[in-house]
Amino acid sequence: MMAVAALAERLDTAQTTRVDTPSLADDHALDIADAYAIQAALVARREARGERVIGVKLGLTSKAKMAQMGVSEVIAGRLTDAMRVADGGDVSLAGFIHPKVEPEVAYRLARDIDLADPVFDVESTVDAMAPAIEIIDSRYRDFRFTHTDVVADNTSAAGYVLGPWRAFGEVANRAVRLRSGDREAIGSTSAILGDPVRALHALVELCRKRDIPLRAGQVVLAGAATEALPFAPGVAEADIAGLGRVSVRGLA
User: Fold this and answer.
1) Which CATH class is domain 4-251?
2) Three-state secondary structure along 24-55?
3) Whether pLDDT at 69 is above 90
4) Could you give the CA distance from residue 250 to residue 93 in angstroms, rounded to a whole number?
C-alpha cells in the first residue's frame, strides 16, 4: 500500500503538533494488515528520533469493547521509553490532544519469546507484575475513528506509569479503582479477558500473526480494567487490590 508512509506521517504530525486529524477511513479503505503496516511506520519514525521500543500494550481486551468495535481479536501497540512517566511523577497535559487514563496490570518479560514455537509457555517468561496507568490520546478529531484507525494510531499509546514490581502471580477478579480529578471508575481485573494472564496468551497469538517481536525486559500492558477517565489537572491514581497503587500528576 503506497499510502503507508504518508498516513504514518499524518498521524505522527498530529501527535507531535498536538493537532487532531480526521479519520483515515474518510479517504482510505484500510484493512487490518494496512493498519499494522502504518503503525510500524509510525513507530519507526519515533525510533528515528532516538526513541526505543521497550514494551507492548494491548487494546480491546474487554468483550464489551470488542462488541462495540465489531471485532473478535485484541489489538496491540508499541510503548517507547519516551512514553514512560515515573510513579508519582508530573506530566504536562499540554503535550496531549485529549488525554485519558486507564488502570492496567503490567507484566515484565524476563526473556525473549520464541514466536515460532507454537507451544511456547508465555507465562514462564514473566518475572514480575505491577499496577499501571496508561495514558491514551487518540489523535483523531472528535474521537471519531474505526477499528483500523485505532491500530494505525498505535492504539492511542501516549504514556504509561508503572507502580512497584512484585513477583508474578494470580490477579484474577481483583477490585480496581481509578481516580482522576473529581472522577472515579470502579471495576475488576476480570474485565481484562476474564483474567489478565489471558492477555499474555492473546498477545503471543497476535504477535505471531503481525510479526511483532517480544523481547526480554519489555513491559506488557494487559488492557484496561475500567472505563477510561479524562486526564484532568491533578492526580490520577489506580489501586488494584492485592497488587498495589500507582499515580501520576497532570499539570495544566
Assistant:
1) alpha beta
2) HHHCCCCCHHHHHHHHHHHHHHHHHCCCCEEE
3) no
4) 6
Q: Give the residue-averaged pLDDT of 28-46.
A: 96
Helix (H, G, I), strand (E, B) or coil at 30: coil
Contacts 24+ apart (CB under 8 A), 79-83: 79/53, 79/54, 79/55, 79/157, 79/160, 79/219, 79/221, 80/43, 80/46, 80/47, 80/51, 80/52, 80/53, 80/54, 81/51, 81/52, 81/54, 82/46, 82/51, 83/135, 83/157, 83/158, 83/159, 83/160
- Which residues, listed in sequence order, are joined to residue 80 by a DSSP beta bridge? 53
Q: What are phi and psi of 96, to 5 degrees?
A: -125, 170
Please give the full DSSP string across 113-176, using - where no structure is assigned.
Answer: --TT-TT--GGGGEEEEEEEEEEE---BGGG---HHHHHHTGGGEEEEEE---B-----TT-EE
Q: Say if residue 49's pLDDT is above 60.
A: yes
Residue 70 has pLDDT above 80, yes or no: no
Contact 229, 180 (CB under 8 A): yes
- Angstrom distance (rounded) from CA 229 to CA 249: 14
Bridge partners of residue 179, in order along the sequence: 184, 237
pTM above the 0.85 mark?
yes
Query: What single-letter DSSP state applies at residue 34?
Result: H
Give dist(CA 45, CA 67) in Å, integer.
32
Q: Quick: pLDDT tens for 133-163.
A: 999 999 999 989 999 999 999 999 999 999 9
Residue 230 in contact with residue 100, Cβ under 8 Å? Answer: yes
The pLDDT of residue 119 is 84
Q: What is the pLDDT at residue 2?
A: 56
